[in-house]
Amino acid sequence: MTARLLAVFAHPDDEAFGTGGTLSQYAARGVEVTLVCATRGEVGEIADPSLASPETLGSVREMELQCAAEAMGVREVILLGYRDSGMVGTPENDDCRNLINAPEGEVVVRLVAIIRKARPDVVVTFEPNGGYGHPDHLAIHRHTVRAFHLAADPGAYRELGPAWQATRLFYTAIPHQFFLQLREGMVRLGMDTSDVDLRLGGENPAWPDEAVNVTLDVADRVGEKWDALNCHRTQFGPANLFRRLPDQLTKELMSREYFALAWPEPEPGLHLTGLFDGLEVAGGR
Ligand SMILES: [Zn+2]
Fold it and tell me: What is the CA(199)–ligand 1 centre distance, in A?
């Protein structure tokens, strides 16, 4: 059986930074990778006004996502078509078309249908804080976790086809050690580290190192990951921190991606060599 991986995120570009190396590494090994993106990122940044206007940003970012998916070898991209809810506390939060304002049951039903059709061995989504607390990241985390379990319940949503129990659910997480390494590099360059400091013991702490179950070495796929990031031109502009760091440090930081096993609940200290470690599926490790 060919291994299948389903990644579920909120905006175009969510997939590239935390999982770009992972998705492309598994795709290159023959794993069938499906990517779900809940919104088209309509209220994201516009790094260069020649690339998009607020009116066109959603369609531009849809194309950027297709470009990134191709760079990573993702087999299929599924857009749920909700609207980007914007950063917390912004007026965009109130739009009734937003992901955060969609009825919970509606989003979950759609994800259950996708899971039962794609029949993934492994599902990946955000950790509960969505990396840094974006309301859409929190929402898609919650909906995906519910859908993961309901897809496996033969009594739930019978009209959506046979139940499917994916073998593992992982959260993508940027741990403390990543920010520590980033900070060291920034200090050497004399850069302001106050944002990073907030993730290192501040009010918005990074994912604990000891709660990482998979540290995937994706050094061989950094090129594809960088290509995928570069597809997201409206978001990954010249001012982006990772464009200002020395190439070697950026490459080092991008060479590892981190995951926490959410289901089945891991024994403390569990270390897996990959998302498919120990599973009897081709292409997975
Ligand atoms: Zn996002």
Answer: 17
pLDDT tens per residue across span 128-157: 999 988 999 999 999 999 999 999 999 999
Q: Ligand 1 centroid vs 1 CA: distance in angstroms?
A: 32
Tell me the pTM. 0.96
CA dist 139 and 128 (Å) reads: 9
Among 181, 174, 176, 172, residue whose Cα is nearest residue 248: 181
Name the CA radius of gyration of the chain, rounded: 18
CA 228/CA 137 separation, integer angstroms: 20
Q: What is the 3-state secondary structure (H, E, C) of 18-66?
A: HHHHHHHHHHHCCCEEEEEEEECCCCCCCCCCCCCCCCCHHHHHHHHHH
- The pLDDT tens digits of the residues spanning 8-51 come to 999 999 999 999 999 999 999 999 999 999 999 999 999 999 99
Half-sphere exposure of 68 (CA within 13 A, CB side): 32
Distance from Cα 118 to the centre of ligand 1, integer Å? 23
CA of residue 136 to ligand 1 center, whole Å: 7
In angstroms, what is the span from residue 156 Cα to ligand 1's centroid? 29
C-alpha of residue 193 to centroid of ligand 1, in Å: 22
| DSSP assigned state of 95 | -
Q: Report H helices in the chain.
A: 14-28, 57-72, 104-118, 135-151, 176-188, 194-199, 222-231, 241-244, 247-254
Give me ligand 1 centre to Cα 72, in Å: 18
Q: Distance, CA 42 to ligand 1 centroid (Å)?
A: 11
Cα 87 to ligand 1 centre (Å): 10
C-alpha distances in Å from residue 22, one per residue of 64, 86, 118? 19, 27, 19
Q: Where do we find the tokens 């930081």?
A: 253
Question: SS3 for 267?
Answer: coil
